[in-house]
Structure formats: structure tokens, C-alpha cells
């Protein structure tokens, strides 16, 4: 079946699905960045490397311990989040009173070290990670073929994003986190352990990157460069949505993924730059981002 523009419905819906999948990763990663920046005022440039580490930890668990996909869904965020906690306690905690640029430079250096170590140990070729048996195959919907695993990635990402938004915006713990960001001295006076909240927040944001890496492993293969290829786009998503905006990161991530997919259908040469064109346009009109707050 052909559309009015001579594009088959299979091609159109296939690219929409691809856009949703990319948008799922954009949303999860930009959400982690937004949580970290919004609560800690740290621009975490190591996020792409931590995403790559999530994929590699899942791969190594399978290769050396025989631990498959489903247990890895629990272990990977715990391991990557634990790495983030160690990083925050040993390095980042020294920079909170300084300009955010120092945090960006530190995390950029950490990202280069992590990526360099994995490139030294595993090269740059992709390593396959199997789709779990329960998520193999797909369904013929008539207008398109829907792979089960790709549908699972979209649903899992959406559930994680909405759960995080609800926890931060609608629960007592989220209220404490926001209050600790605005006035840590006052919050600590009420007996709340603010440093522990800060550490847990960074660990959680990094754990989200680890989960995204695990979800991506069966689709993109496990590669030391997978994070560096994605982080620039994710930063653009965060800027468009508004630095520190949780809801903005989620909506913008999915929306830009779909826009990128549609661009590949109607004008493929522009698909690699459309997100950055949108970023420039948004910054010209609303420098704080679509959902950001003007200072």
C-alpha cells in the first residue's frame, strides 16, 4: 500500500517504530542527565560512557557468569549505579560549590578514560548480545512487522521514564530531593541526610544509563564507541527539553526520535542534523528550552 507521496505504509511505520526505539534511548539517557543536573547541578558528560558500561556489564555477566538478560535487568543498574556512587563520593562531591563547568570537564575526562580502557581491552568491533527467548520473533500487523523485542524496549523505557517522573514530582521523597536542591542547609536542619540524598540521586541517574545500555545491547551490539556516538544527540535533547526538566526530557526524547524517523522517510539526508536544527531554533526562541524555567 502506497501513501499519497509514493511512500509505502511499511516504510513509513517501520521508520516510525525505529524513531520510537531511538526516542526510547534518547528519553532514558536525557532523563538521567536531567535528574543529575536538576538535583546536583552537574553536567554529567560521562553519561554516554556509563551507558556503554551498562551494555558491557550485561555482556560480561553473560560470557563469564552465565547470567542472562532477565537477572541482568536487576544486576546491571545496581552495578553501574554503584560505580556512580563511588564516582560521586570520591570526585564529584568536591565540585558542588564550583562552577558547573568544572563538573563537565571532570566527567568528560572520566568518559575518555572509561572509553579508552574498553577500547584497549575489546577493540572497536561490536559484540553480539542475544535477545532473550521470551522476546524473540514478532507480529505481522498487516501494515508493518513488529519485532517483540523492539516493542519491549519502547514499553520498558516509557514505564521507567513515567515512574521516575512520578517519584520525583509526586512523592515525599521527590519533594525532599527538590527541597535539598533549593536549600540544602534548611533541609539538613530538619534532620534529613542531604549528602546521602545527593549521592543516591547521582547513583540513580547513572543506573538509568546502565539500564539503557542493557536494553540497547541486543539491538546495537556491544561496542566501546556506542556511548560517544549517542551522547551529543542526548545533550541536544536535554537542551531542547530544558536543562533539569524531567518531563521535558521524556517528551522531547520520544518526540525527537519520532521526528528523526519521519525525516528518514521524507528527506533522509537531513535525518542526521534535524535534531540539531531543532535545537538551534528552540534556543533562538526560548533559550531555557521548551520546558525549562527562565532564571
Helix and strand arrangement:
Blueprint: H1 9-40, H2 47-65, H3 69-90, H4 100-122, E1 138-140, E2 145-147, H5 148-170, H6 172-182, H7 184-189, H8 194-220, H9 228-241, H10 246-266, H11 274-285
Antiparallel strand pairs: 1-2
Helix pairs in contact: 1-5, 1-8, 1-9, 1-10, 2-3, 2-4, 2-8, 3-8, 5-6, 5-8, 9-10, 9-11
- Please count the beta strands (DSSP E, at least 2 residues each): 2
Order of helices and strands: HHHHEEHHHHHHH
Counted by DSSP, the helix tally is: 11
Helix content, binned percent: over 70%
Average pLDDT confidence is 89
Question: How many angstroms separate the termini?
Answer: 51 Å
Largest sheet: 2 strands, antiparallel
Amino acid at each position: 500500500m502506497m501513501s499519497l507521496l509514493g511512500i509505502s505504509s511499511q516504510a513509513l511505520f517501520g521508520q516510525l517504530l525505529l524513531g520510537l526505539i531511538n526516542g526510547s534511548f534518547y528519553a532514558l539517557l536525557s532523563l538521567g542527565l536531567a535528574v543529575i543536573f536538576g538535583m546536583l547541578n552537574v553536567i554529567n558528560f560521562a553519561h554516554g560512557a556509563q551507558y556503554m558500561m551498562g551494555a558491557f556489564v550485561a555482556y560480561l555477566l553473560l560470557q563469564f557468569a552465565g547470567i542472562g538478560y532477565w537477572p541482568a535487568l536487576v544486576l546491571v543498574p545496581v552495578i553501574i549505579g554503584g560505580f556512580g556512587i563511588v564516582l560521586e563520593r570520591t570526585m564529584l562531591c568536591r565540585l558542588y560549590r564550583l562552577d558547573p563547568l568544572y563538573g563537565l570537564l571532570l566527567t568528560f575526562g572520566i568518559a575518555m578514560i572509561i572509553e579508552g580502557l574498553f577500547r584497549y581491552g575489546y577493540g572497536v568491533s561490536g559484540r553480539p548480545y542475544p535477545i532473550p527467548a521470551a522476546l524473540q520473533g514478532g507480529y505481522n500487523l498487516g501494515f508493518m512487522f513488529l519485532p517483540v523485542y523492539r516493542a519491549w524496549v519502547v514499553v520498558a523505557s516509557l514505564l521507567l521514564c513515567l515512574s521516575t517522573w512520578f517519584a520525583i514530582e509526586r512523592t515525599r521523597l521527590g519533594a525532599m530531593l527538590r527541597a535539598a536542591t533549593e536549600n540544602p542547609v534548611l533541609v539538613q536542619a530538619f534532620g534529613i541526610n542531604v549528602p546521602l540524598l545527593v549521592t543516591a540521586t547521582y547513583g540513580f541517574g547513572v543506573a538509568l544509563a546502565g539500564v539503557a545500555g542493557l536494553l540497547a545491547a541486543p539491538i546495537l551490539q556491544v561496542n566501546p564507541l556506542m556511548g560517544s556516538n549517542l551522547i551529543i544527540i542526548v545533550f541536544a535533547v536535554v537542551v531542547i527539553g530544558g536543562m533539569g526538566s524531567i518531563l521535558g526530557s521524556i517528551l522531547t526524547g520520544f518526540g525527537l526520535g519520532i521526528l528523526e524517523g519521519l525525516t528518514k522517510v521524507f528527506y533522509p539526508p537531513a535525518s542526521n542534523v534535524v535534531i540539531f536544527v531543532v535545537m538551534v531554533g528552540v534556543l533562538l526562541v526560548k533559550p531555557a528550552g521548551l520546558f525549562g524555567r527562565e532564571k
